[in-house]
Amino acid sequence: MAITTTTIDYYDNETLLEGFFAYDPAFQGCRPIVMIAHAWGGRDNFVEEKARRLAKMGYIGFALDMYGKGVLGSGPDDNAQLMQPFIESRALLQRRICAALNTVSLVPFADKNKIAAIGFCFGGLCVLDLARTGAQIQGVISFHGLLMPADNIPQPEISAKILVLHGHDDPMVPADQVLGLQRELTRSGADWQFHHYGKTMHAFTNPLANDPDFGTVFNRTADNRSWLSMQHFLDELFI
To answer: Which structural domain range is residue 168 located in?
Structure first.
């Protein structure tokens, strides 16, 4: 049976947002939810396809929206402008992704006790911040995410399990941020894992990434390995 997809409008205060759901109607009863946070360009085909792949695995895939309904960046400069307000105000970022969590929690055929969140690049920062808020979700996974700490939550208490999938040669994440996040997660009492991929730069899951000078390069091996790591992690969360 084909995967069923639909969009849903939801709000963060006055901001209208549009999420993308995917699920397989062949699976009966309630099922776990996997939220998907997009990269700096907005909720695009990349995260929608991830939602479909997750639906084939028996989950509800929900590609959330951080920017607003129909808002997509047109290139690096535009993308950076869209992302910057959330970098400057982590409280805004956290409120926006919590609005997505509140939305998926209302889906009638979703298992509200089995929720995870994955994110790519900027989306990796978003899901880590969701965990920092103390949200009662089972786990978060960051794919080549930004790792800077949240200045408004200096001592988070994290109940979610954490998996960070990181390119060792990612020029957008200094080594001190990697070590800083590991120390933060340890202080918070989190159950965390960190997977480094050698000879791997930023955006390694994106087949369109091919700019070594900028630091974004697709790596098929790291992409495959990271997706398998995600599957094992989700299996562990939801058994």
So the answer is: 4-238
